Amino acid sequence: MLKEAMLYDKLDHQEVHCFLCNHHCRIKPGKFGICGMRENREGTLYTHAYGDIIACHIDPIEKKPLYHFLPGSLSYSIATIGCNFKCAFCQNWQISQMSVDKKTGFRGRAMSPEDVVEDALANNCKSLSYTYTEPTIFFEFAYDTARIAKEKGLKNCFVTNGFMTSEALDTIQPFLDACNVDLKAFTDDFYKKICKGRLKPVLNSIKYIKKLNIWLEVTTLVVPGSNDSEAELSEIAQFIAGVDPEIPWHISRFHPDYQFDGNEATPISTMEKAYEQGKKAGLKYIYLGNIPGESDTLCPACGRTVIYRRGLSVGKQHIENGNCTYCGAHIAGVF
After folding, report:
1. I need a surface site. Which of 91, 151, 199, 238 has the fewest CB within 10 A?
2. Cα–Cα dist 84/264, whole Å
3. 3-class DSSP state of 304
């Protein structure tokens, strides 16, 4: 469905300035922004992403991954096609790298915000997650859906690359409860060459999301030969800890995919090295993803297990009123 976009200015000669994300596209009449989903038609910016849902699933919230936000609950998860990054290792490239501008074909099935909320409630979900592709690409639909969801008692979560503007965050903040931000690397060179983005806006978004009191977790996909040096992993961990050492850090194992299909999977030893860098930086909650094994939440004070997990399944929890039931220490999160 074609709908007038939010977060843009009209300029001279029917040009528009889109400030949804930090590409800050200036789009001439008849042209699209970098995302390929926002089009300037005679001086008015339109989104092609409204209500064309290409992915719709009921997931454990842990799949986002969000481990400290309503653990053990279900999240109704949606996406449209499109992204403002071009990550060469994208795990969802089949939908993220589709766009109207490229005329790549199938766009999804029509759903209204009311449809999404009603379906989420009917399936006992506690939240909605805007995920799989970059949620700011379908910002208008996410915004309308999140407002209705909030009225119905549902929480709203963004799983994002963090390249949105502060204006976008200010707009969605009253309705947004949680974010998982991909911090893909700690060099601008990586972001420019591999993602066609930039590092600094992502770092600014992480700090601003925290300032807005939106629950925040961070994920880093560790790609061999690209962002896996001990120095870079240490810088990522130190940055997160500098924002807040209670931000959970999800260290995710890379598997060959898309344009990186010839690369090796991340060695377990590299994952363990990243974990140690997180501990050294003072992070209290660190999780290894895409590998077999436990992903329990431990109390940072007494070391006891306060949330038992097997894969994405949550077992017994020892948290009461946000505190460890063994020693009374605070456990960061929304429970």
Report:
1. 151
2. 26
3. coil
